[in-house]
């Protein structure tokens, strides 16, 4: 489970009148209470309906250039991301750290005539898996290698993609609707 990254666990604190904080003490060996609501085990909401033009703290670019945020714009509760690169290894993908051993992610994606979009489990430039598509083909990503396949004739420029990761058993689904 190296893909879960390193997580920090802090004990509760209170701020004193002189502006300092004081630890309240707790047994860090015992599990914390899980937060209420649609949050992951790390306590952060991972969903986003893109109704705000504020870039959520759960999002980040992998190996970003100084001007990476200029690729992002919002339009009618959608995130529009300008394409970059030719493969996941050179595109600085938009990512978030999941923090759970089991999860499912779904995205409603649309491409223009010159772009490819997809959904990946991305660890680094050499290790990722997922499914991408463009006007004419599907691209299956396994172990950082692309495998091209013909896209079904009824598949257009818009597609729903879902990845389920159940303790490193990965299942990928696609749908036109």
Written account of the structure:
The chain has 177 residues and is mainly beta. The chain has strands at residues 13-15, 21-23, 60-61, 72-74, 79-81, 94-95, 102-110, 117-124, 127-133, 137-142, 145-150, 158-166, 169-175. A hairpin with a 5-residue loop joins strand 1 and strand 2. The protein is elongated, with a radius of gyration of 19 Å. The two termini are 33 Å apart. Mean pLDDT is 85; it is low at 35-40.
List the helices and strands and how they pair.
Elements: E1 13-15, E2 21-23, E3 60-61, E4 72-74, E5 79-81, E6 94-95, E7 102-110, E8 117-124, E9 127-133, E10 137-142, E11 145-150, E12 158-166, E13 169-175
Antiparallel strand pairs: 1-2, 3-6, 4-5, 7-12, 8-9, 9-10, 10-11, 12-13
Reported for the largest beta sheet, the result is: 4 strands, antiparallel
3D shape:
elongated
Number-wise, the strands total 13
Q: Which secondary-structure class do the elements indicate?
A: mainly beta
Encode the helix/strand succession as letters: EEEEEEEEEEEEE
Binned, the helix content reads under 10%
Approximate strand percentage: 35-45%
H/I helix tally: 0
Mean pLDDT: 85
Distance between the termini: 33 Å
Low-confidence stretches: 35-40
How is the largest sheet built, in terms of strand order?
A: 8-9-10-11
Radius of gyration of CA atoms, rounded to a whole number:
19 Å
């Amino acid at each position: 489970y190296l893909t879960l990254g390193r997580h920090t666990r802090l004990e509760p604190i209170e701020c004193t009148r002189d502006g300092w904080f004081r630890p309240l003490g707790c047994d860090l060996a015992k599990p914390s209470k899980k937060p209420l609501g649609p949050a992951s085990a790390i306590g952060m909401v991972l969903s986003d309906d893109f109704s705000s033009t504020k870039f959520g703290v759960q999002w980040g670019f992998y190996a970003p250039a100084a001007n990476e945020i200029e690729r992002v714009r919002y339009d009618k509760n959608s995130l529009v991301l300008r394409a970059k690169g030719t493969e996941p290894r050179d595109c600085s993908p938009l990512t978030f750290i999941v923090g759970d051993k089991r999860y499912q992610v779904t995205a409603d994606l649309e491409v223009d005539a010159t772009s490819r979009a997809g959904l990946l489990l991305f660890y680094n430039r050499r290790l990722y898996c997922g499914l991408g598509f463009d006007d004419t083909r599907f691209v299956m990503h396994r172990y950082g290698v692309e495998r091209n396949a013909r896209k079904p004739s009824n598949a257009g420029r818009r597609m729903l993609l879902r990845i389920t990761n159940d303790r490193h058993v990965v299942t990928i689904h696609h749908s036109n609707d």
